[in-house]
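I had to read the description of the data format several times before I understood it. The format is easy to grasp once an entry is in front of the reader. For illustration, here is how one protein appears when written out as sequence plus structure tokens:
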Amino acid sequence: MLATIHSAALRGIDAELVHVEVNHGETGPPETVLVGLPDAAVKESRDRVGSALANSGFEKPRTRVTINLAPGHLRKEGPCYDLPIALGLLAATSVLSGERLQDYLIAGELSLSGATRPIRGALAIARLAKKLGKRGLLLPAGSAAEAALVEGLEVHVVESLDQAFRFLAGMIELPPAAPLPVASATSAGMPDFADVKGQAAVRRAIEVAVAGGHNILMIGPPGSGKSMIAKRVPSIMPPPALDEALEILSIQSVANPAGGEAEVQHFGLRPVRCPHHTISDVGLLGGGTIPGPGEVSLAHHGVLFLDELPEFKRSALEVLRQPLEDGRVTISRSAGKITLPCAFMLVSAMNPCPCGYLGDNEHTCRCTPAQIQRYRARVSGPLLDRIDLHVEAPAVSVRDLRSAAPGEPSAAMRARITAARDRQLQRFSSTRVSCNARMTQAQLRRFAVIDREMGDLLERAMTQLSLSARAYDRILKVARTIADLAGAEHIASPHLLEAIQYRSLDRSSVS
């Protein structure tokens, strides 16, 4: 007898339909044959399912059984097919009626006792179920809450094979799963900018960068607070819109090797990724035998913080050029080709020289000009050209450190940034652009207009700093953001001058 269960396979951050076909009663020795391009984890499901059936009070098949995971050209990976295979065996042996099976997408790992375990990519599977017009999903506890965020679906938690059997047989009813709660910056206990003493210029640059989604580089000696400030950037970022939050969660869920909500970041918060400088190109960009997201995609709609920027491998830094420009990355491997979103804000920090004390009044720099040049040359011109704001972070004075007065709190900065972002969302309401940093050329010509006098001023700055055409556009985008923070409809000279001074550490002046 043949039974078919509907499940899913992950491909990038999306899911594709998989038909789990179970044919029982074939002639030949009693064995279970699994086909359909399964990986090692899927092949091992034969042993897990056999023990789970026995320990749940069901009999193992006594004839030859062929299990086909269709389509055959799509590689299947992970233990998520345990539950649909077990239910397929029960349906193929007439223990379970197949009437309700076709209404649901089913996925879940089984323990030897028959209990279910979380899987990854539950949100992607839920989106597929809605696209296919399914009634709902059966998922393990720990995976169902994220899938319940998709409206119009019945998402049921099944804690064991026996419970799934009784639900599909109509013996019991299961309540719908509750969706993940929405977190806030306050509830997440993020570090606050009130702890930062001094560094008014850096705080201002960070506010401009976050307000427009611009990339920023902080240059300063050790102990000047660069890392401390970077860790507080998430506390001033406006919460993501619902579609952005779902994209963020989709990537986190797919990238989580063990599945489960405990490993997924708080829903409703923008992600922050802080990879170590020893990270590989694949770890940063994404890839693997079966292509998956890297740090740039895990930082989608959030922040990618690279501390000690020149210490990263040159090859790893250079792979950032295309993602910074396009907001997406395409990964090609023998197992397939996928395109992943990676519209992140780059926050980076570096010392001015190898010893870190160039220009510091309290310490003597021990580096030679050649050493300084080699150190700064580790960050290539094309990459630096894609960083909108370059700001110096000088050493903090003892007077500022002794001051008992707290700095401006994150809440006040976030309010101004949110107001500026709202202006941008209204400006780009008819497009998918969400911030000034992502403006197209047509939008730049329309919304970042400057008069002849400001044009002459920008031309002189371009000549003196030897800036590229890309830098010209980025200066205008930053000026548009500064005008938004000021509540101005048009760019004025002070906005343009401030934007220009954030390019003062460009390649011509730091090399």
